[in-house]
Design brief:
heterodimer, A: alpha+beta, Nuclear Transport Factor 2, Chain: A, 4 helices, 7 strands, 22% helix, B: alpha+beta, Naphthalene 1,2-dioxygenase Alpha Subunit, Chain A, domain 1, Rieske Iron-sulfur Protein, 2 domains, 23 strands, globular
Chain lengths: 209, 471
């Protein structure tokens, strides 16, 4: 094809001027039937009416120390943060409300935490032979409600795990119910809504997040 | 490239490592096993309403299970016939009155039939007309349902679903019969865990009673310690401690647990956890079953000795606790597992919650059990990819198996009769494929290395005889 022919072809064209009353897709029937979407299940935290700055600081320190205990594999110290009736719960979906009624990723009272710690520390926990570690970052800490003996706290976490040479990322939100016991805040419930909870797991997770 | 001659690959007491690692063999498995046999798609309760769908793989084929307006469940290829775009991009959802392609707006009824092609007159005079079957979504050749569990086969011929399942039907009977209504429903959560190993590792492991006390000691031992402390303090301990502590039973105890090894590779590990406590919830539940079925039938259902049932080569059904794991092989060294839980319709909530403990502790992505299994299988796959040895041994109690009506038994729970039986089925499925010379694959007579042929000749015949009787 000669240059002259190409120039002739390229010498004409159209300009689509403006949006008409219907788009091309809208003109095609019957294509706009209801098609289910995933419901929006995001949780937006409340804010406690009046927050004392020192209480905010105290709560943040507790959460940051809790994360550091996981990264340090200080399992016993981590379990001691929970009240005697404390529960660690990672639901499978954000709309779950009862930790014993639907499938969870984690659903553990202190006795089951003790079993998991026993497993992690057992000399023949084969899957623990692999070098692994985590790095937790906790932020966006909001005290949702506060009374003298109970706090509801919302926070978000980001966790990187390295196992052998494989890096994985987990993230989500924490909701802690803290109760005042013996002059300290103890965890009665830690709810962990992990964004990856229903995603494909390449391998599993062995310790609390 | 290893020899792919069947008698070389699969011997009565050992198999060649390439059946776990070789890409050509994997492709043949996809074609001649997974894309031929009946594959589990899902439970009909996963798609209760018209337009509800669930996507899945059959072999290498992306499929969608969908319910239409008349209530029928279809299994279709998840592909627009126009330019190939997948019609459902999510794992599950509702597609409304039909499917619409996001690329050029071709639309389809829920049974896959073409509904509308935009600007159809542009196809005048072409081979593409609305009555051309190529304009509709392609369907699985056969779809069938056993007690609510939906299966599809991509092959128009072959055994019926009932023939394929054979004695393994008891998996679904046992699950459903434990409901006073005779039905179960799927819980909507599906955990998905990728195994970095060949699908055979999982299938063999499921009936391998030799491994738990080794692999799972780290969980069994602390679980027993806590269980005993709670018992001494309170008189009894929740059943879920027992779920975990039994994993660390002794070898002698595991030898008492029997396996039953059916034709087609299916099998059963018989019960060992003692799941019939006498608490008020159980008493109430058993009374409901007796009311529904009568004393005798209810007793029969409650006393079936099953830990779990394998539907070879991809399903493990733990019917007494209503758990199901389904494998979707992705590559020789990669297997997706889908993990489901079911509710017994009409049974008390407490009975569901009791089985949920097992699901959470053993089958969730934070499992205290499978973490160590997956570690074994990953390292196992790596080992078999090496040239550190050519063979995988299944010699344990070899030569002492007994056979009745095509079913293989051993007096020892830890016998590797389980794997020998699974490879009996694998041979049957793969024999026609491997008998054909294919590009890049040595023909059968180019077969066995001399040593392998000589040291296994007698027993090869024994297995062949077994396979014939079992078929």
């Amino acid at each position: 094809m000669s240059t002259a022919t190409v120039n002739q072809i390229l010498g004409t064209g159209v300009v689509i001027e403006a949006i008409q009353s219907m788009t091309g897709a809208e003109s095609i029937a019957p294509d706009h039937m209801g098609r289910g979407r995933m419901p929006a299940t995001g949780y937006v935290p409340q804010a406690a009416a009046r927050m004392d700055a020192s209480l905010q600081r105290e709560v943040e320190t507790l959460l940051f120390r809790q994360a550091a205990m996981l990264d340090a594999k200080a399992w016993g110290d981590w379990i001691d943060l929970f009240a005697d009736d404390g529960v660690y719960w990672m639901p499978s979906t954000p709309d779950q409300t009862d930790w014993m009624a639907e499938p969870s990723i984690f659903a553990e009272d202190k006795l089951l935490m003790e079993v998991r710690m026993g497993r992690l520390n057992h000399p023949n926990a084969w899957s623990q032979a692999a070098a692994w570690g985590t790095n937790h970052l906790v932020g966006n800490v909001i005290v949702e409600s506060a009374s003298a003996d109970q706090l509801e706290v919302y926070a978000r976490f980001q966790m990187m795990e390295l196992r052998r040479d494989v890096v994985r990322h987990f993230g989500g939100s924490y909701r802690h119910t803290l109760v005042r016991q013996g002059g300290a805040w103890k965890i009665r419930l830690q709810r962990v809504d992990m964004t990856n909870a229903q995603a494909l797991f390449d391998y599993v997770i062995q310790a609390w997040v | 490239m290893p020899s792919l001659a069947l008698d070389h690959l699969v011997q009565p007491d050992r198999v060649h490592r390439s059946v776990y690692t070789d890409q050509d063999l994997f492709d043949l498995e996809m074609e001649h096993i997974f894309e031929t046999i009946w594959v589990y798609c899902g439970h009909e309760s996963q798609v209760p309403k018209a337009g509800d769908y669930h996507t899945l793989q059959i072999g290498r084929q992306p499929m969608v299970m969908v319910r239409d307006k008349e209530g029928a469940v279809h299994v279709l290829y998840n592909r627009c016939p126009h330019r190939g775009v997948q019609l459902c991009g999510n794992q599950s959802g509702n597609t409304g009155h039909g499917f619409v392609c996001s690329y050029h707006a071709w639309s389809f009824h829920l049974n896959g039939q073409i509904r509308a092609i935009p600007l159809m007159n542009a196809y005048d005079g072409t081979k593409l007309s609305a009555d051309n079957p190529d304009c509709s979504m392609k369907r699985a050749a056969r779809v069938d349902n056993y007690r609510g569990f939906v299966f599809a086969s991509l092959s128009p011929t072959g055994p019926s679903l009932s023939e394929f399942l054979g004695e393994a039907k008891v998996a679904f009977d046992d699950m459903c019969d434990r409901s006073p209504a005779g039905e179960v429903e799927a819980v909507r959560v599906c955990h998905r865990v990728m195994q970095r190993s060949n699908w055979k590792f999982f299938m063999e492991n499921q009936l391998d009673a030799l491994h738990p006390s080794v692999t799972h000691q780290s969980t069994g031992v602390p679980a027993r310690r806590v269980e005993q402390r709670v018992k001494s303090e309170k008189g009894s301990a929740p059943l879920f401690f027992h779920y975990l502590s039994t994993f660390a039973s002794s070898f002698d105890q595991w030898d008492q647990v029997q396996t039953v090894n059916f034709p087609h590779g299916h099998g059963i590990l018989k019960a060992y956890m003692g799941l019939r406590p006498t608490d008020p919830d159980t008493v109430e539940y058993e009374a409901l079953l007796k009311k529904a079925y009568g004393e005798q039938k209810a007793e029969e259902y409650l006393s079936r000795s099953i830990h779990h049932v394998l539907v070879y080569p991809y399903l493990s059904v733990q019917s007494p606790l209503q758990q199901l794991r389904c494998l979707r092989p992705i590559a020789p060294d990669q297997t997706l597992s889908e993990i489901w839980h079911f509710r017994l319709k009409g049974a008390p909530e407490a009975i569901y919650r009791r089985s949920l403990w097992y699901f959470n502790l053993v089958n969730s992505p934070a499992t205290m059990i499978n973490a160590d299994d997956l570690e074994n299988w990953t390292k196992g796959q790596k080992g078999l990819e090496s040239k550190g040895g050519e063979w995988v041994s299944f010699h344990r109690h070899y030569g002492t198996d007994t056979e009745r009506d095509g079913v293989l038994y051993s007096t020892k729970g830890t016998s590797e009769v389980v794997m020998r039986n699974q490879f009996r089925a694998w041979r049957e499925y793969m024999a026609p494929a491997l008998a054909q010379a294919r590009p890049g694959i040595p023909p059968m007579q180019a077969a066995a290395a001399p040593q392998a042929a000589s040291d296994a000749a007698g027993s090869t015949n024994a297995l062949a005889a077994t396979a014939t009787t079992g078929a």
